[in-house]
Design brief:
The chain is mainly alpha-helical. The chain has one domain (20-35, 57-169): Up-down Bundle (Four Helix Bundle (Hemerythrin (Met), subunit A)), CATH 1.20.120.450. Helices cover 54% and strands 5% of the residues. The chain has helices at 24-40, 59-77, 84-93, 103-123, 144-169; strands at residues 132-135, 140-143. It is globular.
Length: 171
């Protein structure tokens, strides 16, 4: 039996080469989110990037946040602290309008961040998944798997919110 697997969700396409078995669901979620972001933004009018329908977060915010949250959570998963540029980008995510940012640039940034995360997942030892990791200055306790899992579910949550916002804005 032959079928077109291009319509299948990422998790239905089987294991992703190079990703440890316990990290496959995280990789699948990131790949699925990236794919959906591209689909959602097909023919999206650039003039609406920073609009906030019903005072919801803008499309521009969601795109910036998707990249930023992955960058931050994967940094913590490596046991590192955030750098100044990451903190600066975090403070800018909720700001309304950046003239030099377009949806194309923001989607490319997200694509690149997903690629970086998949590379990091391929290097992550399954034996490290329960190791302690601290978040932020307060070193809020979590684990490597906690950070990686949260990054995947958080991206899917914002992908869904992006879908709703684009649906409200698109003519």
């Amino acid at each position: 039996m032959s079928f077109d697997d291009s319509k299948l969700e990422a998790w239905q396409r089987g294991p992703i080469p190079g990703i440890p078995p316990l990290l496959q669901p995280i990789a699948h979620a990131l790949i699925q989110s990236r794919r959906e972001v591209h689909e959602i933004l097909k023919e999206f009018p650039e003039s609406l990037l920073w609009e906030k329908p019903g005072n919801l977060a803008s499309v521009g915010f969601h795109l910036q946040h998707l990249s930023g949250v992955l960058d931050r959570l994967f940094t913590y998963a490596e046991g590192k602290r955030l750098e100044e540029i990451q903190l600066k980008r975090l403070s800018q995510e909720s700001q309304a309008h950046f003239e030099d940012l377009t949806s194309k640039i923001l989607v490319e940034r997200y694509d690149h961040q997903v690629d970086l995360c998949l590379e990091q997942l391929s290097r992550t030892r399954e034996s490290s998944l329960t190791e302690f990791r601290g978040i932020g200055r307060k070193q809020i306790p979590t684990t490597v798997i906690g950070l990686l899992f949260h990054s995947a579910e958080h991206c899917m949550r914002h992908t869904g919110q992006l879908l709703v916002t684009v649906g409200l804005l698109k003519p």
